[in-house]
Amino acid sequence: MSSSSSHSQLSLMTLSEEKAHHGELIDRISDLPCNVIDGILEHLNIQELVCTSLLSRNWRYVWHTVPKLRFCEDFFFRFDDLDDPGPEINRIITDVLFQHNGPIYEFTLEIPLDSNFLISTEYLNKWILFLSRRGIKKLDLSNYGTLSDKIPSHVFSCQELTHFWFSGFNLSVHPNFCGLKSLLVLYLANNTYEFGALETLTYGCPLLKMLTVEILQDIKSICLEKAKNLTDLRIMVNHESVSGLIKSLPKIQRLTLVTYVFDKTFYADIIPPSQLISLKYLKLEGVNLAERGELLYIVSVLKSASNLVELVIESYSDNCELEPYQLEGLECNSCCFSQLQTVKIKVGSDNFKHAMSLMRFILANSSSLKTLAFKVHFGKDLDPVVLLSISRDLLLMERASQRARIEFTYRE
To answer: Strands 222-223, 192-193: parallel, antiparallel or unpaired by DSSP?
Structure first.
């Protein structure tokens, strides 16, 4: 139980169980403002929420109208002692939903990584159909048990959906899919995708602003050109074959690229710099700064994205055999870096020399830079001489911006 949930439940029980002089319970909860009561209830998990029916007679059916229901992992683990908890879990979730009397705006279902907790497709479809008729706006379906299940088809009937997170499913979209016309945020992680399903889904979401996609399989290409309102994109790559992954993009302003396939996947293979001209924020996580191509990719993005304000780089590569590539000789138009104000770079102890080369280049060509934050994880191999050397080199680097401030930190 989370601390916030425990505190909320404790507050309710304390208010309801205070005794008067004659030994009777005083119902102080019902006198609270409605917005305070709603705020308390929204922080309770499903077990705590149902238990509020025991507080007093007036509270017997209050939970029936709470618009936010969460069946998280702690709910499932309460049935750990059963040999086959599936039927009991299916029955309880069904009962909770069908006893609910009001709209349900938010619904969370987190199925743990345990074969005992598998939810049948029949029940899942039934629940989603029920939610589609109750005005569901935020839906989180996280299936950590198996990747074989197809996403419930009734999801596409939730026309008031604005935020949708789902993971652990196979995404297929029916040819007659009419779209999710209200969807603003879409999070897709740990899924598999049938051919063309991802594009079909995004095409049907004309208001989509934020998209997160994790790539687990060999996908030839993804075209997001028709997602005209998409401004925030996060791509997580967990597969080696991603050459030419993003074929076309709208004018996105925020981009996060994450790769878990170290030393085998390069960002230039995912999105070419020419598609990033409207960027204001860029985060590259898992970049290999020891690779000349990766450094040149970052420089190319800086040149293309003339409106870039913030750059974040996190490098986990331990390839320290290669000498740092010198970037100073590259031709650079000073106007290309004129908007860049914040740079954050985090590296391991074996890779800091390559990061220093990049920082030297950025400092010398960023006329509006305000902060460059450099963090090195040295672990237990902390060498005071090395720290002093890094600090001295940073201070001596040429700066195009007189306001540029360097923050150097390390973690033992």
So the answer is: unpaired
Q: Which residues pair with 210 in a beta bridge?
A: 185, 232
Q: Would you state the structure tokens that stand for residue 223, as one six-digit string?
A: 């075209």
Contacts of 92 (CB under 8 A, 6+ apart): none
Contact by Cβ (8 Å): 183, 164: yes
**What separation in angstroms does the CA of 144 have from each of 108, 116, 216, 282?**
13, 12, 15, 30
Contact status, residue 125 vs residue 152, Cβ threshold 8 Å: yes
Mean of pLDDT values over 78-92: 85
Domain ranges in the chain are 1-66
pTM of the predicted model as reported, rounded to 2 decimal places: 0.83
The pLDDT of residue 8 is 38
Instruction: Return the biggest CA–CA distance within the chain.
Output: 87
Q: Using an 8 Å Cβ cutoff, are 243 and 228 in contact?
A: no
Burial level of 154, CB count in 10 A (0-12/13-18/19+)? middle
How distant, in Å, are the alpha carbons of 83, 341, 366, 369, 407 from that of 391?
A: 60, 21, 20, 19, 10
pLDDT band at 12 (very low <50, low <70, confident <90, very high): very low
Return the number of other C-beta atoms located less than 10 Å from residue 133's C-beta.
12
For 183-226, give the DSSP string. --EEEEES-EE-TTHHHHHHHT-TT--EEEEEE-S----EE-TT
Taking the C-alpha atoms of 57, 58, 63 and 65 in order, what is their torsion angle to the nearest 10 degrees? 140
Answer yes or no: are the C-beta atoms of 206 and 183 closer than 8 Å.
no
- Hey, how many other C-beta atoms are within 10 angstroms of the C-beta on 327? 20
